[in-house]
Amino acid sequence: MCSLGAARRVRRLHRRGYRAVPGRDSATSAGAAAARFDRADGDSYDGGVDRVACRALTICAVLGAATVAHADGSKLGKDGTPVQARAALQIRDTGCCGYPLAENLGFALRFYWLAQEEDFDEPDEVAFASPDEVGLYTREGFFIAAVPEKFAWHLRMEGSGLMADGRELNTTGKCAYGYGTCFGTVDKRVHPYGRGAGQRPLVPFKSVAVDPKVVAIGEPIYIPEFDGMRLPDGSLHDGCVRADDTGGGIKQRKMDFFVVTYGNFRFLLSELWGVSFMTPHIEAPRCAYLRDR
Predict the structure, then answer these.
(1) CA-CA distance, 170 to 185, in Å (whole number)?
(2) Range of the domain at 171
(3) Co-location of 154 and 23 in the same domain
(4) Contact call for residues 135 and 177 (beta carbons, < 8 A)
(5) What number of other Cβ atoms are within 10 A of residue 216's Cβ?
(6) pLDDT digit string (tens) for 111-149?
């Protein structure tokens, strides 16, 4: 039976970090075993204890030490440093995203571009296109041009367009002449890609049309679904756009992204495959460069 005093001595040594190294010391009596106890910091304790009483505790101590070493084979584990379970590192980018305008994917994503007359100069090549031409007029009643009806429809829908002769047109509202929508020419030196709300120039892949009751005109917006999107020229979008335009069909949680041409729209469809809704954010520090100075 194990000596109570010897057992207590072994337990105290274990609590102080010592591990038993069993062996026999010639200086001890034949009935005693020299149990040497080593600690990780290099300290050791030598003391004779009753061999029979402590054999079981010594074996358990050795097996226990082996079990601990097996539990964590890393360098920190071998050094005795406790290792916590690894977790994914999460760092919030305080210069990123601002505040969402709605719940996740709460805004409908749509696109618009410049209507181009050259795409409709042969009405019989366009499915369901009427071969009849319609007249375009200014609000003052001045004649602009006669164009294919299909082009006039797209011009009214998109809000801006390019004539075959290079002139750029913008809608100016309802009209008592011609097609029922009035148009005006735009100075391409000031508005090379069309005019948005007021006198704001449209910027390719940066301008969006919004409901001004929801988003203020001129407000920079961060759209995480656009961040990292590949553009037709091979560059990557940074997720930043600006509210530069409005539209009659844009109400509440809808947003139209200006992509310049129909060809660009087709390209971005593959880049945004399956993305029909988005989560716009305002007050995003990374998009502050788009704010009006």
Answers:
(1) 6
(2) 129-192
(3) no
(4) yes
(5) 10
(6) 999 999 988 865 554 555 556 789 999 999 999 999 988
